Amino acid sequence: ISIKMCCILSGEPIEATDGTIKTYQGRQKFQTQMLTAPCAGGCGTCMWCIGQFVPATCGITQCLLRRKILQYDMTKYSCFQGQFNVCCCIKAGSCGEENCPDFCAFMEGCFCNFAAVSASRNYTMEKYDLTSDPCDYRLIRINNCLQLLACLCSIAAIIEPSLRELANLINWIADLFYHTVSGCMTAQVSHEIDYQVSIGNADGAAQQVVVVEAYGDDGHHHKGGHHHHNEKQFR
Question: What is the spatial distance between Cα 98 and Cα 68, in angstroms, rounded to a whole number?
C-alpha cells in the first residue's frame, strides 16, 4: 500500500498555500534517505531508529538526539528549537528551558513527540543547508494522511459504535506507521550529524562559502596575471 501511495503522492516540499507552513530547502542533500537511514550507519543508526520506534523509549531518544544536535551544549536548547509553537502556552523561551534544559527536552520528547522529531530535523536542515529527498516527502505525506484518517475514524466510531473495531485497527496502523517513519527520520538526522562532525563541520560553517575578490593597492579589481585570485572563506 505504501509503495503505491508513494507513486501517487507528490514528492514536492510540504507547504501551505497561505505561507503558514514552509519547508526549508537547502542546497545540500542528506547523506541518506529516510528509507535507508536505519542501516546507513550500521548498529548506531539502527539503535536510534529502534529507540524512536518503541513508544516506551521514544521520549528519551528525542532528548538524546537533541543533545547530540546541539553538540551536548544544552545552553543552546529551547523548546522545539524555536521552530514552532504547539499552543499559546508552549512557546520557545517561555518554558523555563534555561533552568532545566534536559528535563524540558525529555518532556518535549515524551508529550510532544511528533513536534520534537520535526523540530530536530528542521533545525538540522537549516544548520547544514539541507533539503529532503522526494521519497522523504512522500513518506511524510502518507503518515499525515493516515493520522487524519485515524482521527476521522475515531470520530465516526463515537457516532456509530459499530465502527469501533475498524477505528481501532486504523489507529493501530497509523501509530505503527508513525513510529516507523519517525524512527527512520531520527536515524537520518543522527547519521547526518555524525557525517558533519567527521568532516569537521559540526557548526555548519562549511556550508556557507563566501568568495572574496582580490583588489590591488590602487583600489582597482585585477582580473589577470598574478594580481587576481579568489579566496574562499568560511563564516
Answer: 18
User: Dmax over Cα atoms in the chain, in whole Å?
Assistant: 86
125 contacts: CB under 8 Å, gap ≥ 6 = 24, 26, 131, 132
Are residues 144 and 187 both part of a single domain? Answer: yes
Q: Are residues 82 and 131 in the same domain?
A: yes
| Structural domains of the chain, count | 2
Instruction: Answer yes or no: pTM beyond 0.90.
Output: no
Residue 216 DSSP one-character state: -
- Which is more confident, 6 or 67? 67
**Contact status, residue 52 vs residue 114, Cβ threshold 8 Å:** no
What local confidence, expressed as pLDDT, does residue 233 receive?
31
Same domain, 69 and 185: yes
By mean pLDDT, which of 17-31, 71-85, 203-217 is the weakest?
Answer: 203-217
Q: Which of 202, 195, 182 is nearest to 48 (CA)?
A: 182
Distances (CA, A) of 180 to 33, 172, 198, 232: 14, 12, 27, 41
